[in-house]
Amino acid sequence: MKLVTCGLPYANGKAHIGHLRTYIPADVYVRYQRLKGEDVVFVCGSDSHGTPIVVNAEQQGLKPKELVDIYHNHFQKVFEALDINFDFYGRTDSDYHHKRTREIVERLLENGYIYPKEIELAYCPNCDRFLPDRYVEGICPYCGALARGDECDQGCGRHLEPGEILQPKCKICGTPAVFKKQKHYYFRLTAFKDFLEEYISNLRGTENALNYAREWVRGELKDWCITRNLEWGVKFPGDENLVVYVWVDAPIGYISFTEKACERLGKNWREIWIDGKAEIVHFIGLDIVYHHCIFWPAMLKGAGYALPNAVVASGMVKIEGKKFSKSRGYVVWVEEDYLKAGFSPDYLRYYIVNYTSHQKDLNFSWHVFKEKVNNELIATLGNFVYRVLHFAWKNFGEVRMEVDGEVIEQIRLAKEKIEDAIERWEFKEASDAFMELASFGNSYFQSARPWDLIKEDENAARDVIASALAIVRALAILAYPVLPRAMSRVAETIGLDLESATLESALEVPDVIRVSKPKVPFEKIDDKQVEELERIMMERVREAERKEKGEESGGEGEEEGGSVDERISIEEFARLDIRVGKILKAKKIKGSKKLMRLEVDIGDDVRQIVAGIAEAYREDELEGRLVVVLTNIKPAKLMGVESNGMILAADVDGKPILLEPEKPVEPGAKVR
């Protein structure tokens, strides 16, 4: 048995393309596992607690539960529209979840892994209350950037414990806060260092998640404060004035939602979470690796629960080549942008899994979206399937299935590629495999020319169509997890029951296939439709820019004495997309002593970059080297060669010294 979970969407805002980087691949994975004959339970739910929900609800004049109701229903609607089918989709403000969370916290208390500690917390004298993390802002004690109470979100990105922030002030009224002592409760994370080192060494998953986890556990672990001053949340056992920190109760949702799913499915949840008789796989975003690979397994171990077997982390998402940002307008809303445009959910499912490796950053572009649908789904897959089905229906209706051995071998090859790719969470490779099979089918059909052959030898033409139909039948099965709607229609046309199909049955050849009148699998995307969506996007960006300028108007960069302040803000620094890159190839540019042409892997792309380092480095000592790259600089031509990035180096006596990460990291890792 397998349990597959997805990171819980926060019930504080609408679904955007970034969310789907986790949920669509997870659904695809579950569908492929079921085609392999695996017994899979698939759960998720709304993360309903935490300070941001309380703050947002207050601003809108709502109660927290009313706000959660809105976005919980919204996410359910979006998931249903995109054919993301959970066995149970819950919410963490439910009674059954509160019960399970309190039970686990009580176990941790009994086992000595939670202890009380008096700490100094920010307190607003004007509002007359202690300030929970998102109610306070100030200065990060590590990097000096503006930060919120629980995280340096605009600087170094470090988690901040309660009381750590410097120069705190109340985010609600702006009053400078004072520090007052209060008793809170800590989880003894430091007690699990040896356990975590061994656990992570055996944990499976994507390398981006595992690499981060290994580095964190080798470093210094700190005990976590797991209580907050809020009324909205799970009441802490023994102190009803405090609630459990959201990062304690949210992952426990995986357990409470499994309980409810098992009630529906007639299974025993204890076999999964207590007895450890199931493989537990978490699909998450890269930004919550620490919580899932460090904090969560330590909690489970301390409470006597089964441990996750794999953590699958997706790369981040860009919009039109820009860093994803709701505040700057670089966002695509699933409901009001994508679904409102009337596009098939299959198109977005294909784009999400096929654009790049699951671990790498995905760039969403409306233009690229159109090209992938029109030039790949339609021109390759849809074209082949419809031509074969229409020819078979028009000329035969019923086809005796005498199939070419080469065709069976190509189907077998595609099936094996898909099985291998899915076990490595390489969904692009899996979707490439069925697209390659469709390409083979196109070539087979075109070279056989059954429209001419039928005039001379009807039986020979029938045999060609039989082999082509075997490919169509296999595609309906192999592509179904990615394209469930289109492939369900194809299956219906040839009388294939996908409910009982398996990956192995893609190789089966029925005696006869009866073909009903087919429908076109995919509709072409019109240029004007994409242009309108791009216009909406850019207007959103311009509106955000106008708003930002309006908020920042006044000084025009001048200080009191009239001199220009050349310092940049943290927001300006955040616009720089600096990443670790890996040099794949290096070649001196003819006619230049200093310039070197480099091909650099930056995670989601391979860039050609021209760098003035030829006098300092040989070609052979550059290839395979990790470097630091500014990726969002405008392209430039040097000696007639276009450069799409800048390699960063120190200038030492006029000689460039390349900047390198201290330890090996994956190409595409962000520098901040």
Automatic annotation (TrEMBL):
Binding-site positions, ATP: 326
Any one GO MF annotation of this record: ATP binding
InterPro entries from the UniProt entry: Anticodon_Met, Met-tRNA-synth_bsu_C, Met-tRNA_ligase_1, Met-tRNA_synth, Methionyl/Leucyl_tRNA_Synth, MetRS_core, MetRS_Zn, NA-bd_OB-fold
Compositionally biased spans, kind Acidic residues: 553-563
PROSITE patterns: TRBD
Catalytic reactions of this protein: tRNA(Met) + L-methionine + ATP = L-methionyl-tRNA(Met) + AMP + diphosphate
Principal location: cytoplasm
Record GO cellular component, one term: aminoacyl-tRNA synthetase multienzyme complex
Highest taxon listed in the record's lineage: Archaea
Binding site for Zn(2+): 140, 143, 152, 156
Enzyme Commission code(s) on record: 6.1.1.10
Disordered, as annotated region: 544-564
Compartment(s) where it occurs, according to its Swiss-Prot or TrEMBL record: Cytoplasm
Motif, 'HIGH' region: chain positions: 9-19
Pfam families named among the record's database cross-references: Anticodon_3, tRNA-synt_1g, tRNA_bind
Motif 'KMSKS' region, residue range(s) on this chain: 323-327
Cofactor note: Binds 1 zinc ion per subunit.
GO terms of biological process kind: methionyl-tRNA aminoacylation
Cofactor(s) demanded: Zn(2+)
TRNA-binding domain segment(s): 572-672
Function: Is required not only for elongation of protein synthesis but also for the initiation of all mRNA translation through initiator tRNA(fMet) aminoacylation.
Family: Belongs to the class-I aminoacyl-tRNA synthetase family. MetG type 1 subfamily.
Assembly, per entry: Homodimer.
Protein's name according to its UniProt entry: Methionine--tRNA ligase
Source species: Geoglobus ahangari
